Amino acid sequence: MAARKTTSSSKTTAEQTQPAKDEDREQLRQRQFPAKVGAPAVEVDERSADGAEGTRYVKTFVVHGDSWTGEEYQHEANKAAVANEAIQRGLHPRGEASFYGDEDHEDGVSVVLTYSVETVPSSVDHAPEDTTTPRDVIEADGKDTSSSKLEP
């Protein structure tokens, strides 16, 4: 007499694939949020368009050479923009952005400006209230962000 082949029920099949799905989901989370598995620098780098140095978010700006004078007010606007972009990319800036320097662009007309700011990936930030916002950058320089104070 031939041995009878057993078939698995759909419930058993579902139970067998469920751990695999959970495992896949966890792997996806780890790839999306490397900081959750102890690799915050990897997450910062993956979320940075212009690169990263460890957990420092790096941002470059290309400006027309004739308009760049290097005056402090130009740096202030760029530092606020660095904080804003880091936040938009899921990173929480800590402290003031640093200006690394400028170099001539390959087009011969523009200048490349490089800034960076220390960040914490939002996925592992246990103190989000410490995030430096663009408003913090502007107000730290004694400026006012309120449009109600504009004169008619």
Sheet of most strands: 4 strands, antiparallel
Please, what is the oligomeric state? single chain
Helix content: 25-40%
Strand order of the largest sheet: 1-2-4-3
Task: List low-confidence stretches.
Answer: 1-7
Distance between the termini: 99 Å
How many β-strand runs?
A: 4
Structural class: alpha+beta
- The DSSP helix count reads 4
Approximate shape? flat
- List the secondary-structure elements in sequence, H or E: HHEEHEEH
Radius of gyration: 24 Å
Instruction: State which percent range the strand residues make up.
Output: 15-25%
Q: Can you describe what's shown?
A:
With 152 residues, this protein is α+β, with helices and mostly antiparallel strands. It is built from 4 helices and 4 strands; from the N terminus they run ααββαββα. The protein has helices at residues 10-32, 40-47, 72-88, 134-140, and strands spanning 52-53, 56-64, 91-104, 110-121. Mean pLDDT is 81; it is low at 1-7.
Summarize the structure.
This protein has four helices and four strands; from the N terminus they run H-H-E-E-H-E-E-H.
